Task: structure prediction
Amino acid sequence: MVNNSSEFYIGIMSGTSLDGIDVVLVDLSAGYPKLLATYFQAYGKRLKEELLVLHHAANDELHQMQLISNELASLYAAATAALLRAANIALEQVRAIGCHGQTIRHCPSEGYTLQLGNAALLAELSGIAVVSDFRSSDIAAGGQGAPLVPAFHDKVLRHPNIHRVIVNIGGISNLTNLPPKRHTTGFDCGPGNMLMDAWITLQCGEFYDRDGAWAASGQIIPALLQKLLDEPFLHAVPPKSSGRDLFNLAWLNSQLRGDEAPVNVQATLLAFSSRVISDAIHCFCDGAQEVYLCGGGAHNQALVQNLGISLPNCRIQTTDLLGLGVDWLEAIAFAWLAQQRLNGFSVNLTAITGARHPCILGAHYSA
Result:
């Protein structure tokens, strides 16, 4: 039997970067989350390639989708077990797992989003209740179903006197605007690591550009940068969200002449990712004083330096300084979202997602 009085939760996040699984054990008994243990499980090359294929229509994709969903559940369960062993915590002490799942479609304009990771199987394999499918209720109410973490940022990272902006740079970048004494806002800015990762994989066989070193060795192509910045999504007024359904290699190739030096394309993509973030802050976060970065892009020193140049009036820092590690913040947020679901609280901020009304988010699967 699970101890229902426990406020230990596990958060599992596997984002659009497709690098692997972030797993955290969090004590949510106090107002501020206490991170007890972390675990990372990288995706193998085969699984990553199969997930990329599923982002597009293909032969027998429904069958493959279900098989991979089961495989992900097994990986999530194994990562959960490894985490608990390392922390010396019995599974009975954990109230629930909050599992985001692996997004392969995000189409709120068509009324749906799809994340893989068989939650019922995960509950069966782990012996712990699971909360998943956090986005569908918001979309059913007319919202974008994303971003969802601003509610968590609002709860734990808001400052009473300092105007903060939290920027998560994953595959897609998104921001949370936390102006003192005003409502929280937030939205997806545009590509974070997604295009840079895809391009360096295509050209060099590397999964990502460490520290942005390859991009820093190239030259920005001004005409290409302007073409990328002309994408209508970037000029749409929030609420808005996006993903691989728009920003992918096919989209990038449609912007290229074909004779560009690959390293210069990478330099331009880094400048593009920086601009979509800094432009969003300039347009929608007037008066921001502090910008806190999290997600994999927070490790890209060239990108961080570029942001510092574009945002000279903001202190650019990482969420490490707030006690929430850049690599674990999103997983912590989904542990917190699971707690809100079990406690019956609605946490979709309708001004951010565009939903018609607040919703209790997530589907609950008992162990």
